[in-house]
Amino acid sequence: MLPLPWKTYAKCFKMGALSAMEYRVDFFIRLFSGALPIVIQCYLWTSIFRNSSSATVFDYTYSQMIAYSILAILTSTVVAAGFEREIATDVKEGSLNKFIVQPISYFYFRVFKFLGDKSIRIAVLVVINAIVIAILHVTLDFQLMWQAVIGYLIVIPLSLLLNFSIYYCISAISFWVIEAWGIFATFTLLAGIASGSMFPIDIFNAPVQRVLEWLPFQYVIYFPVNILSGKVSGISIMSGMSIQLIWLVVFLFVSKLLWQAGMRRYEAVGG
């Protein structure tokens, strides 16, 4: 990887932000679609609890489950990748050519463009989802103390970078598979389940939970959401952050190896 020419990558960041706003209709449709899962989850769990004879389901009260669902969806929207298809297109159509002959790192280009895109989406998503929550009259009974909020804000950048590194690693499959979109879609679905973006991980049985504990995905969504809910605090936050950093280093290292192997296969056709 090349040294960081900050002015160049600042422009990459700006490019990502402008790209997010370029197609305004598509942009707002995507943002609105991000709010729909909140509505679906609220109605789903409302139906489940109404038909349950117990006040708790999977050791969650109704308000706790609704709160978790909302926080998990918000967090998953914040950390979502989506650039893997762009990378697949770059490999397939030969758009990587310019990064071979110019003094700019494709990795850093993707990182800063990704962060620029996120900066816009996060700002608008916070407003839209706050409105949705207000309309649904959802009361979060989690005690969102300032310590939990600060802990969440510290951890979420690591979750963002960890998810980026995971998908950047997976995107290298484009060097070996011509049409990798199906693989990306399947992986995204499975990763969503394993990360806790759909349901809390602790609703699964013990064997499944033990398997998921050995995977990195829970540290993308489930871990930061539990910080915000107050279930994880103190030394457990530091421990979780250490695991996040370890997984981040692992995926960055693996992605470097995969991309080096992939570039040896790259035929630089097109562009």
Automatic annotation (TrEMBL):
Name any one Pfam family assigned in the record: ABC2_membrane_6
Which keywords does this chain's UniProt record carry?
A: Membrane, Transmembrane, Transmembrane helix
Q: Where is the signal peptide?
A: none
Which spans are transmembrane here?
Answer: 27-46, 66-83, 120-138, 144-168, 180-201, 221-254
User: What's the name of the protein?
Assistant: ABC transporter permease
Species of origin? Paenibacillus oryzisoli
